[in-house]
Amino acid sequence: MSDTNSGDASPGHLHRLVLFSDAVFAIAITLLAIEIHPPHHWRGIADLFVQMGPKLTAYAVSFAVVGVCWFSHRRVFSRLARANGGLDVFNLLVLGLIALLPMVTELLWEKHDGEAVLVYVGHVALIGLAMGLVWAYAAFVGKLTEPMPVTEAVFVLLRVALLPGLMCGLTIFSLVKPWGWALMAALVIGLNLVGRRLTPRPAKETAA
Amino acid sequence: MSDTNSGDASPGHLHRLVLFSDAVFAIAITLLAIEIHPPHHWRGIADLFVQMGPKLTAYAVSFAVVGVCWFSHRRVFSRLARANGGLDVFNLLVLGLIALLPMVTELLWEKHDGEAVLVYVGHVALIGLAMGLVWAYAAFVGKLTEPMPVTEAVFVLLRVALLPGLMCGLTIFSLVKPWGWALMAALVIGLNLVGRRLTPRPAKETAA
Amino acid sequence: MSDTNSGDASPGHLHRLVLFSDAVFAIAITLLAIEIHPPHHWRGIADLFVQMGPKLTAYAVSFAVVGVCWFSHRRVFSRLARANGGLDVFNLLVLGLIALLPMVTELLWEKHDGEAVLVYVGHVALIGLAMGLVWAYAAFVGKLTEPMPVTEAVFVLLRVALLPGLMCGLTIFSLVKPWGWALMAALVIGLNLVGRRLTPRPAKETAA
Amino acid sequence: MSDTNSGDASPGHLHRLVLFSDAVFAIAITLLAIEIHPPHHWRGIADLFVQMGPKLTAYAVSFAVVGVCWFSHRRVFSRLARANGGLDVFNLLVLGLIALLPMVTELLWEKHDGEAVLVYVGHVALIGLAMGLVWAYAAFVGKLTEPMPVTEAVFVLLRVALLPGLMCGLTIFSLVKPWGWALMAALVIGLNLVGRRLTPRPAKETAA
């Protein structure tokens, strides 16, 4: 479909890899809710929300995390012109960590203390690093991208590798200290400004 | 595929967003059935259906709800020419509410009274409002649609924002008072008549 | 993708509908296995297979059933040139029944007698009839197909409406009386012969 | 999409078959994690990892197994020019075994001894053989591939039929005896060298 104007060696491979990854993301994001069950006893709607509050909060955070990871994944793959076996392997690593997220989210319910939060944020940071590995391999080792300046490639690397962990940590921090949201907004706006200066050609995303 | 005649900046982005959303809808709709198990003891087929009746009814209603939401989603996205980060975020909100629907459906089994029904219908209405947010952002803020008259954009907004809640409420009402179905039929036919007058070009849906 | 040579009004709609249906089929077929768990105690591999035999048999039968339904669905949709709202609704009915199949399969484990088998085969026959409804609507009411002789349209109707129930009944019958497999082979070969005489143009399937 | 340059009889059929298979692979790989739950009691992060070690190891092995099977599947289907009913049936056999893998993985948790490992590796080897059947049917019986030398077809057959079982057995062996990893590396590198000599045209993968 979008393969016609890329003129590369294996668009079919890249296309199937993207579809496969999307399916895993979609399943993982939907399974986040599958272990949430309504309480057996509840008196009135307010009581229902009080009882389900922690689970719904954890759900919302994890949903946002998978969303951010999916954005990063799309961002990385929209810059690729072809795929190879190495990309398959590193991408599989990302997907394997994504598929574990529903389980790691359960940790947050069972034991809502510092250590569970640490494991959770650590896991999300690991997903970011794995995504950074995918990009580093694609851009610097496998030469799978369209030609781009090195500064841009390094910026993308830092962005996809660090953003999931940072945003996840900041989100949980902001649930406790509301001024964390200001930090988050600054981070997102700042990254967008830098990103726009480095990549002034939005039309490039056509080969997603 | 359908990108060739749209001439926009990021058809790949839009295409991946649609596929991702479709996958979430498909998973949510299939998971509706996953918590339904046959009873351990049943005597004869009639007894089986009596025992399973409430769960199967709730399943049918929720299946129809996800179906209506999917139609609305398709309707909205068939009018878009491109996607951007803001659309990602609002769309994610819709998907997050859709993925919760199997859990909210369980509420209907556990405690089949007015409050459970209220939470359920409220959740469906919320999905509609979130879909309206997606459309309002796309049409009025992000300018992601193909050119269209403002009246049509407002009609689509009202339709996607209010229809899920209305139809869900009417369906449950009609299970108790059968003449509710006549109201529902009038609603659907009326909307189609207005829709046809406002959008006389069915060929526009090619860019879905 | 395959839209270029069809020249119809809404190929995007049809394409999204097919992808959505495929996803539901794929999820339902994979969820068939999700309630199967290995026994807690087993002595040797032979004992493991003896203990799991009934569940694995039911799994194999249901997997084949979903497979046959998917073939029928593909067969129907490969003959369509466009989609509309009515097709959405009837197709949703098919998907709703498909998504219930994992639950109906559990019936076969719990109570392996004539009544459970009857409910199961009845459910599969119902899926076939719903698929027949999709085709009847598409071919005779909505005029969504490419031009074809009426005899062919009627043959497709009988085939998709009756085949799932027949094949499922015959399969279960053949598990008890092995000469049922000969009947099944005769049915499949006969249908293929008739089908070839009526539809001598395999190249038509390009617009799937 | 990639159908335009293949000029075959039923690219739509092949395309839908690939998408359907991808979805089943994606669901199976994601469901591997669904039965893993965090322990109810754990003291410190180290204790958490000790308690979850066996499950996470089994998860990682199975994830890699599904990954290798997906690579094989992609490899096979990238060489096909069209699909037919026979391919549907053999492919369904592969998918049916893939969908059972989450259940077979549970075996490894419950009873971590030689017999459970034997069943597991045997199941993976069976997946490989089923994939070999798909390829043998496509290349030698159904003539569904693009023209290729017989030596290449036989090499692909051996590769897809034997690799999953071999790699799975070697992986589990290497968890006990670390020098098994060297064997594995030699196997992968050797296969790639032979593969490159036999198939010097990577551009052929465009029709995936």
Automatic annotation (TrEMBL), chains A, B, C, D:
<comment type="similarity">
    <text>Belongs to the TMEM175 family.</text>
</comment>
<feature type="transmembrane region" description="Helical">
    <location>
        <begin position="56"/>
        <end position="73"/>
    </location>
</feature>
<keyword id="KW-0407">Ion channel</keyword>
<keyword id="KW-0472">Membrane</keyword>
<feature type="transmembrane region" description="Helical">
    <location>
        <begin position="17"/>
        <end position="36"/>
    </location>
</feature>
<keyword id="KW-0633">Potassium transport</keyword>
<dbReference type="GO" id="GO:0005267">
    <property type="term" value="F:potassium channel activity"/>
</dbReference>
<keyword id="KW-0631">Potassium channel</keyword>
<dbReference type="InterPro" id="IPR010617">
    <property type="entry name" value="TMEM175-like"/>
</dbReference>
<keyword id="KW-0630">Potassium</keyword>
<keyword id="KW-1133">Transmembrane helix</keyword>
<feature type="transmembrane region" description="Helical">
    <location>
        <begin position="179"/>
        <end position="195"/>
    </location>
</feature>
<protein>
    <submittedName>
        <fullName>Putative integral membrane protein</fullName>
    </submittedName>
</protein>
<dbReference type="GO" id="GO:0015252">
    <property type="term" value="F:proton channel activity"/>
</dbReference>
<keyword id="KW-0812">Transmembrane</keyword>
<keyword id="KW-0813">Transport</keyword>
<feature type="transmembrane region" description="Helical">
    <location>
        <begin position="85"/>
        <end position="105"/>
    </location>
</feature>
<feature type="transmembrane region" description="Helical">
    <location>
        <begin position="153"/>
        <end position="173"/>
    </location>
</feature>
<feature type="transmembrane region" description="Helical">
    <location>
        <begin position="117"/>
        <end position="141"/>
    </location>
</feature>
<dbReference type="Pfam" id="PF06736">
    <property type="entry name" value="TMEM175"/>
</dbReference>
<dbReference type="GO" id="GO:0016020">
    <property type="term" value="C:membrane"/>
</dbReference>
<keyword id="KW-0406">Ion transport</keyword>
